[in-house]
Amino acid sequence: MFTAAVSATDAKPIPFNRPHVSRREISYITQAVWQGFTCGDGPFTRKATDLLKALTGAGDALLTTSCTHALEMSAMLLGLREGDEVIMPSFTFVSMANAYALRGAVPVFVDCRPDTLNVDEDLVEAAITHRTRAIVVVHYAGVACAMEKLGKLAEGHALALIEDNAHGLGGSLNGRSLGTFGHMAAQSFHSTKNVQCGEGGALLLNDAGLLARAEVIREKGTDRGRFFRGQVDKYRWQDIGSSYLPSDTLAAQLAAQLESFAEIQGRRHAVWDAYHEELAGWAAANGVRRPTIPDGCAHPAHLYYLLLPDLENRQALIGHLSEAGVQATFHYHPLHAAPAGTRYGRVAPGGCPITEEASDRLVRLPLYADLTETDVARVIDAVRAYRVCR
Ligand SMILES: *Cc1c(COP(=O)(O)O)cnc(C)c1O
């Protein structure tokens, strides 16, 4: 087909996500391969771990093969037993529920707040029973949960507090880094996250008493870590565990990414801010809600979402953007209503009506460090060309 000019639809489609390649990435990976130390706990694992600790201020950190595995480690560290209960939001990623259900615990799903879409801290206490062992939260879009209130609740009921901080690397609440409020926090370095090595994660430990056992759990239930440090003369099976230690080649990629954190974040914030500013008028005119960032929260520009008035308009906007060559997408399906959610979990009193509504109405726009200014402008124009139908 011959056309006189390149229209928006003929331009290259803008993907929802594209992993950033940082400056020293290839050189570090090459070094890791040549040094002949490609299994876990090598020099790059040390380097990436130190960078992560410096960035978050966490007491200790252990790299893992994924955030899912970091959550599974947290479940093992809690020593959960069949029938124990773990309180968590319904509006979150499946790995959170899976990790505790795998240990025989029952996920108890609580609704989210309408503003931040984080777990509603005012509903948590009513979900606590004599079987509750932990409260697990996710800082949605890297915007902090009400950690002060949740911390007091956990302390008052002698429960563990765990953060799924997959979205929150670099975010903070009243100047304190996300990932340092809970006894433990799980990070993700999946290719869709701000800092990535394809598949990877970390368990942050803010309770010094947890490190020794966490190391054993990560190393197939053995004290191999102590053996390599010369602290014991042989390593043996000590505890339950699995293989959660990532290869040093992946840690090399991660170290390079973490060294580029400021650069990555600078670009991501520029995109986030452009969306937020440029879509304000359109959102107001169309009854669309933009993200809410409460006072004291510094978010890390992990994702940009819009809440359309209803499911029909959300679907229509995704279709409209797709025709304009912009890949936008919905997000979590409520866990309490998922097939496995009803089988393995239960919903807290009052249900999760806000979660169900948010899940229907939410759309995420492309957001990554290498999104060009031209592409950002194209996304904004495409969104603005959509009129909400009522
Ligand atoms: C991405 C993500 C995970 C899973 O991370 P993996 O590293 O892929 O296991 C878990 N929780 C949340 C909130 C996430 O966004």
Automatic annotation (TrEMBL):
Pfam families found in the cross-reference section: DegT_DnrJ_EryC1
Cofactor(s), names only, from the UniProt record: pyridoxal 5'-phosphate
Record keyword Iron present: no
UniProt cross-references to InterPro entries, sorted A to Z: DegT/StrS_aminotransferase, PyrdxlP-dep_Trfase, PyrdxlP-dep_Trfase_major, PyrdxlP-dep_Trfase_small, WecE-like
Keywords, sorted A to Z: Pyridoxal phosphate
Tree of life domain: Bacteria
Entry's family note: Belongs to the DegT/DnrJ/EryC1 family.
NCBIfam families (alphabetical): ECA_wecE, PRK11706.1
PANTHER family attached to this UniProt entry: DTDP-4-AMINO-4,6-DIDEOXYGALACTOSE TRANSAMINASE, TRANSAMINASE
Protein name listed in UniProt: dTDP-4-amino-4,6-dideoxygalactose transaminase
Organism per entry: Sphaerisporangium flaviroseum
